[in-house]
TrEMBL record:
<feature type="transmembrane region" description="Helical">
    <location>
        <begin position="319"/>
        <end position="337"/>
    </location>
</feature>
<feature type="transmembrane region" description="Helical">
    <location>
        <begin position="58"/>
        <end position="79"/>
    </location>
</feature>
<feature type="region of interest" description="Disordered">
    <location>
        <begin position="1"/>
        <end position="24"/>
    </location>
</feature>
<feature type="domain" description="Major facilitator superfamily (MFS) profile">
    <location>
        <begin position="52"/>
        <end position="438"/>
    </location>
</feature>
<dbReference type="InterPro" id="IPR011701">
    <property type="entry name" value="MFS"/>
</dbReference>
<keyword id="KW-0472">Membrane</keyword>
<feature type="transmembrane region" description="Helical">
    <location>
        <begin position="119"/>
        <end position="138"/>
    </location>
</feature>
<protein>
    <submittedName>
        <fullName>Predicted arabinose efflux permease, MFS family</fullName>
    </submittedName>
</protein>
<feature type="transmembrane region" description="Helical">
    <location>
        <begin position="85"/>
        <end position="107"/>
    </location>
</feature>
<keyword id="KW-0812">Transmembrane</keyword>
<keyword id="KW-0813">Transport</keyword>
<feature type="transmembrane region" description="Helical">
    <location>
        <begin position="210"/>
        <end position="229"/>
    </location>
</feature>
<dbReference type="InterPro" id="IPR050171">
    <property type="entry name" value="MFS_Transporters"/>
</dbReference>
<keyword id="KW-1003">Cell membrane</keyword>
<feature type="transmembrane region" description="Helical">
    <location>
        <begin position="412"/>
        <end position="432"/>
    </location>
</feature>
<feature type="transmembrane region" description="Helical">
    <location>
        <begin position="255"/>
        <end position="274"/>
    </location>
</feature>
<dbReference type="GO" id="GO:0022857">
    <property type="term" value="F:transmembrane transporter activity"/>
</dbReference>
Amino acid sequence: MYSSSHLAGSRLTTGPPNIRRTSHVFGQPEEATPTSTAHADTAPPAIPRTTSRHFHGLNYLLAVLLLGANIPTALYGLYRSEFGFTPMVQTLIFAVYVAGLLPALLFFGPLSDALGRRFVLLVAIAFSFLGAVILAFADATVWLFLGRIAHGVAVGACSAAASAALLEHEPSRNFRRAGLAATLTTALGAAIGPLFGGAIAQYLPHPLTLPYVVFAVLLVPALIMTLLLPTSAPRGARPTQLFQIPHVPAPIRRVFWLSSLGVALAWGAVGLFQSVVPTWIVSLLGVSNLVVAGGAAALTMIASVTAQLLANRLAASTSLWWGVGAVGVGMLGLLVVDFLPSLALLCVVAAVIGAGHGLSFAGAMRAVNAAATEHAPDAHGGTLAAFFTVNYVGLAVPSICAGIAITVQGMHVALVELSIVGAVLCAVLGVLGTRRARRQP
């Protein structure tokens, strides 16, 4: 997930709100973020002396933190066997990650401007390590919730500072290269996490402990490289607003809601592959290998980032609504797999949903950025905050609904209902969106 600052924490200069181009993925803007809310009386920060080592170290940190946050994806079936909780509790454990991520995202963005990227990145590493320790030694369900919240805070804090730091530490100040690096490393971490956790749990002892121990070891190089990172915080900077309230100006609300809801549907489908589908693979398809269970979730992320890289060739509205359509087709594909169980078909469905997510996210990000830049440049940061809030709510809510439905009605009936509802919502929103796009000059 998730996963990669984009709300208020990406800044190279102080002063009145301006828009600066940047690029992110899985919760990060591709084109523009506002300047920070740090005190305007401070002098601009000096651009830090940097090397490619710093740049690559930041990429490693971003990838590793996303990897850690996605380790549990392949392990939920083992957790259910160990602790005996229901599918509803399983999806709540998955979704509570967002409860840590969103506040951290909104809080640590401005703080990284005031206190420096390095400080916030160290906080992110600390929370990631804390989450790993909690999950490694969890002996009750409540610890799974706490560990997931800690990982959510870690990813939120890292997202709030790492992308700005990548821009500042790209040796040639090539913003496009920095943005592409953020896209690829975030996707890489999100894709490897389920495979990493599944492989260690499948083939090595202590399946619910060892994945997090190995992950904690991987955090050590990230910690060392972050400690060696130059900081660019302005001296004497004082934040005037440490928590950005999402806000969408009236002139752009229509395009905002159509775009945001389209991506929320895509995130919801991806969330199913990260929370429910790995267990479904075991129960419906009879596949017990945890690498395969994690592989379906990994495939959605790989397809998503591939689609995002190709989406620049399409108009924003075309990318958005083709993506929503692909997600709808993928949801119908889940319905087919439910009646005709096939691992190969499930992999195709995962790729289609992942590609739909990538296309819709890239198109929606460009549409919202363009609308905010043209009609509400002073509210760009609040608009993006609202956009990603809707995105992450979309990630969590369908998974919770799936857990409730599976607990009450059983896996088969619940998946039929979810597939039909998801496909219908995609169709309705797609019709509304394409009609609006055709009316535009």
